[in-house]
Automatic annotation (TrEMBL):
<keyword id="KW-0812">Transmembrane</keyword>
<dbReference type="GO" id="GO:0016757">
    <property type="term" value="F:glycosyltransferase activity"/>
</dbReference>
<dbReference type="InterPro" id="IPR040911">
    <property type="entry name" value="Exostosin_GT47"/>
</dbReference>
<keyword id="KW-0735">Signal-anchor</keyword>
<dbReference type="Pfam" id="PF03016">
    <property type="entry name" value="Exostosin_GT47"/>
</dbReference>
<dbReference type="InterPro" id="IPR004263">
    <property type="entry name" value="Exostosin"/>
</dbReference>
<dbReference type="GO" id="GO:0000139">
    <property type="term" value="C:Golgi membrane"/>
</dbReference>
<feature type="coiled-coil region">
    <location>
        <begin position="43"/>
        <end position="77"/>
    </location>
</feature>
<keyword id="KW-0333">Golgi apparatus</keyword>
<feature type="domain" description="Exostosin GT47">
    <location>
        <begin position="108"/>
        <end position="391"/>
    </location>
</feature>
<keyword id="KW-0175">Coiled coil</keyword>
<comment type="similarity">
    <text>Belongs to the glycosyltransferase 47 family.</text>
</comment>
<keyword id="KW-0808">Transferase</keyword>
<protein>
    <submittedName>
        <fullName>Probable glycosyltransferase At5g25310</fullName>
    </submittedName>
</protein>
<keyword id="KW-0328">Glycosyltransferase</keyword>
Length: 442
């Protein structure tokens, strides 16, 4: 399966026709007629309304087609040319820095997001802004209340539509722990989609193909099952980006999991030590024994080696972030679900992440070459972990560490948001998926 960037790299045409770079999803507009008809309009009104929507879509698609053509031209540039703006260099951390930079500029010029106003607090229009699911609330708050250029109050000008509910707050307020039943979450999502599809024409026009939801909770995928089109057609932005559980990288977006204790990044991670500072430990991990991978890691390495410091529970006299800042590599095994906040913590600490996971689509992998700033180790190779890491040449380690420094800006939460930070990278991932949708009314 090829991701969006892989198709875009090798596209050479400058046509302004709305030919997607990756794949085409043609969506019939038949339900638009039903929606308007249900509202009691005459046939003449229905015809005018459909024509109006068709003209709007054609205008939107023309602008998107021009953006695609501009991106194709950028993708064809000589890779040895420098990119002179915003420090998006020709370094190896990007699949194609010219394409990424041009795509980002086109997003800034064009992309408009409509946030549905429907729904009530706390489950809608709010989300957690601290602890393990903080990215969910922080994105939602920035989208709703930030001063950015992307939100529009006119839904007819929007390219994508945001369903602003929080799965984490659904779990908190709707879920009964003793039942282990996620049905209430599915019912809430089902009802929310039903409401917006009755009040607005946009969901029915595309069967939700230009709509997105965002969730960092492990049960985000389960909640999305509340509507089959949301699950199968819409853009789902998920921390739990597990391809073996229905995550589709062609339309869904992997979301980085960022653990903010108390709502802020630890001050220790704001200023990592200089490059020439010694890092006495080869690798580090501390965490509970849950999921299928961590027990294997702990079995082979817990308290067994002075170079690879692996703990199930960190002793009270030890500091978690100090270990990260003093380690060359930070082990990032999946827990019950594929995502791990340790990946972003490692990047903040400028400690090269070692990804121990299965079926995980890594965040921003449309744009970023993870092999340029991380090490991915197969679970079967955990017994050989020390040998694998210790035989990495110092020159390669320095390149990996330099890559970590280069991508840090893309995983940083700013308030207010800044260009190329994690908020904008999430939007850019959504933008890439939207570019590959060709909406047609018949």
């Amino acid at each position: 399966m090829m991701l969006p960037w892989q198709r875009m790299r090798f596209t050479g045409t400058d046509s302004v026709n709305p030919v997607p770079l990756n794949f085409r999803r043609e969506v019939s507009g038949e339900n638009q007629l039903n929606t308007v008809g249900d509202a009691g309009h005459s046939n003449n009104t229905i015809t005018k309304e459909v024509a109006k929507v068709k003209r709007r879509n054609e205008k939107l698609e023309e602008r998107l087609a021009r953006a695609r053509a501009s991106m194709r031209r950028a993708a064809a540039r000589n890779f040895t040319l420098a990119t002179p703006h915003d420090d998006i260099s020709t370094g190896t951390v990007y699949h194609n820095p010219h394409l990424f930079y041009q795509s980002y500029l086109e997003m800034e010029k064009i992309l408009k997001v409509y946030v549905y106003p429907d729904g009530e607090l706390p489950i809608v229009h709010d989300g957690p802004c601290k602890d393990i699911y903080s990215i969910e609330g922080r994105f939602l708050h920035e989208m709703e209340f930030g001063v950015g250029r992307f939100r529009t109050n006119d839904p007819t000008t929007a390219h994508v539509y945001f369903l602003p509910f929080s799965v984490t707050w659904m779990v908190k307020y709707l879920y009964t722990p003793s039942t282990y039943d996620v049905t209430p979450l599915k019912h809430f999502v089902s009802e929310y989609v039903r409401v917006i599809s009755k009040r607005y024409p946009f969901w029915n026009t595309t069967h939700g193909a230009d709509h997105f939801m965002l969730s960092c909770h492990d049960w985000g995928p389960h909640a999305s099952e509340g509507n089959p089109f949301l699950y199968n057609t819409s853009i789902r932005v998920l921390c739990n980006a597990n391809t073996s559980e229905g995550f589709n990288p062609m339309k869904d977006v992997p979301l980085p999991e960022i653990h903010l204790y108390g709502g802020e990044v630890s001050p220790k991670l704001l200023s990592p030590p200089p490059d020439d500072a010694p890092r006495p430990y080869l690798a580090f991990f501390a965490g509970g024994m849950h999921g299928p991978i961590r027990p294997i890691l702990l079995h082979h390495w817990k308290n067994r080696d002075d170079d690879i410091r692996v703990y199930e529970y960190l002793p009270k006299d030890k500091d978690y972030y100090s270990f990260m800042l003093n380690s060359k590599f930070c082990l990032c095994p999946s827990g019950y679900e594929v995502a791990s906040p340790r990946i972003v913590e490692s990047i903040y600490a400028e400690c090269v992440p070692v990804i121990l996971s299965k079926n995980y689509t890594l965040p921003f992998s449309d744009v970023l070459r993870w092999e340029a700033f991380s090490v991915q180790v197969d679970v079967s190779d955990i017994p050989s972990l020390k040998e694998m890491l210790s035989t990495i040449p110092e020159s390669k380690y320095r390149k990996l560490k330099h890559g970590v420094k280069a991508v840090r800006r893309h995983f940083t939460l700013n308030q207010p948001a800044k260009r190329f930070d994690v908020f904008h990278m999430i939007l850019h991932s959504i933008w890439l998926r939207r570019l590959n949708i060709n909406i047609k009314l018949r």
